[in-house]
Amino acid sequence: MGVFLAGGEMRKTLLLLLVSWCSLSFADEGMWTLDDFPFDLVQQRYKVSVSRETIQKAMLSSVRLAQGCSGSFVSPDGLVMTNHHCVSSCLAQISKPGEDLLKVGFYAREPIDEKGCPNFEIEQLVEIKDVTSRIKEATKGLAGADFAKKKREEIARIEKECSTSNDLKCEVVTLYHGAKFHLYRYKRYNDVRLVFAPEAEVAFFGGDPDNFMFPRFDLDVAFLRVYEGGKPLKAKDYFSVRTEPVGNGEVVFVTGHPGRTQRLYTKAQVEFLRDRLFPLFMWLLGEMRQLLLGLLERCDDAERPLVQNDLFFVENSLKAYRGMHLTFAEKRFMEDKTEWEKQLIASAQDKQTVQKALDDIAFSQKVFSDILEEYLLLEGRFSMVSKVLVWARHIVRWSEERKKPNEERLSEYTDAELPSLKEALFANIPAGKKLEEAKIAFYLSKIREVLGSEHEVSKALLQGKTPEEVAKEVVEGTRLFDADVRKKMFEEGYEGTQDPATEIALRLDRAARAVRQRYEDEVEAKVNVGQDVIASVYFKNTNRRVYPDATFTLRITFGKVAGYPEKGRWIAPFTDIKGLFEKATGKPPYALPERWLMAKEKLNGDALLNFASTCDIVGGNSGSPVFDKDAKVVGVVFDGNFQSLGGDFWFDEEVNRAVAVSIEAIVEALKGVYGADRLVRELVAQGKRKK
Predict the structure, then answer these.
(1) How many domains does the chain have?
(2) Which residues pair with 560 in a beta bridge?
(3) Which helix (H) or strand (E) holds 7?
(4) Which one of 5, 15, 297, 657 is most buried, by most CB atoms within 10 A?
(5) CB distance 188 to 420 below 8 Å
(6) What is the pLDDT of residues 228-271, one digit of tens each?
(7) CB atoms within 10 A of CB 185
(8) CA angle 461, 467, 473 (to 5 degrees)
(9) Is pTM, for the whole model, over 0.85?
(10) Helix locations, 546-660, DSSP H
(11) What is the CATH number of the domain that holds 20?
């Protein structure tokens, strides 16, 4: 997540992170795959023995939320623990007109009250298989676009062979930037129902000012239940919980799905992020934030939860990118990147090949810089700001992709990916019309502003009209708000419907495909081949006792509960419920819900609320279980401190901290504030059960 440089000096150089050729550093750094857990390192550093059975149990008890979060089974009846902010979209979508479940929270007092979350998918990793030799053999002797094409085709074949039913999902994962390829096989669950979520005021207490900060006082937790065949899933593997609080210095473990890290990026790649991508991202996010703040002031109650949910994620992303960008401001950071590349070349037998790989990657970043605005707006992240336009794109593209062999389709339309895509597209989820109109107008205006009014795409989309006029026509004329219509168009074709949303998608598609093709051939392919060379050298010289960069796949990390120094003072690793009430002012973002104020005297003020540890996490770890050496869950990760925001690029054990909600506080709140006796009994019963 991030970097904090106490006193303006880097505590540990990136060189020590990346250039330990002969031995691994003993920091609590590392996002390890569960088939390569460093048992010896844990024993050596902490004198703690972890069994292979414990790691296997942790793998099968951990889950991935397709929304970008992590979670864990915590009962044999399919109960899943995650974060409130990971289910905020569900809360917004299931809120009835005039009801705001984000604000008031939700608890299903009886099983029949558990509400289904639209477009929610939970995935459980059940098998890992090494497929490196197949992909290496398929791409042998190839480079550039030919390499990329052959690799995509072989991956599609492997995934199709593995995906033998719709309840399985298979994913080929690139590790060590191409030195290894693993096939991950998941069990998919799409009947997911909400059991409990607190009010946003206490789940996100402190709001944006306290986000990515510590001390924290948040109850950022939620519980879901997985159903199978209309009944609660009978989970064979799950974590039990421990209600006793963790101690200072206690060894803890985290399993979860950290997003993509770039700790082995070259200097040229980091410079591109610093100078081009991040500034553009931050500007667009800032513009989107202003749009949503304005919309929040004038939207009706029905759309307010949807706007609030969008605003939370925009503000969260904006603060994260700003924190990451600060990493690049440190002179030593770039100096260490330069030194790392020198060491990389020096350690290689074929120095010219490594130098060429670095040069090719550097050239690819120049190409990416040339096409960045088009790629980001037409095909990348900011082409997906509107649900309606995303739906329309999938309908338009599938009409073409379905004609191709599986191996030649765009990756999101392969046989392995289609079940998830269809479920997302056909889900009956709300999309506020005023919100959609505002986001479509925003999107079209940014295309015109960034690409220019004379750009072919601007002309094709606007056709002499204003962005606001086109957005109004789309929202008023489209039938895609109806899930049945989306399903019919996807399966039978959109041609002849004259739907204005698919018309916009069609006008975009040619240019979007073209810039995607150029990115894949001239940027991604060059980087893949170059990183394959670099990874091979790095992999060989580290004897494999290093962890791969994160890939939003299941990893395990370990560390200890610990405070840290900040600006000349020591930050203790704990906060308690008493401190939450002391910090409350009665005004946002430090206002507590009324029922918390009423329950104050019933609560144990000394109960541990949040705690910090040295476990190595980044975005995507939200909802990850924190468990002790006996595999009992003691907390759930929900954030990192500000110093963790550069964690995508390096890890500083002295100040980088993962922040979690304590099980002790969760149980205390469920009993004392919410009267959630049914849920408490289910949780605590598993804590007492021997597994």
Answers:
(1) 1
(2) 251
(3) none
(4) 657
(5) yes
(6) 999 999 999 999 999 999 999 999 999 999 999 999 899 999 99
(7) 18
(8) 80
(9) yes
(10) 577-583, 594-599
(11) 2.40.10.120
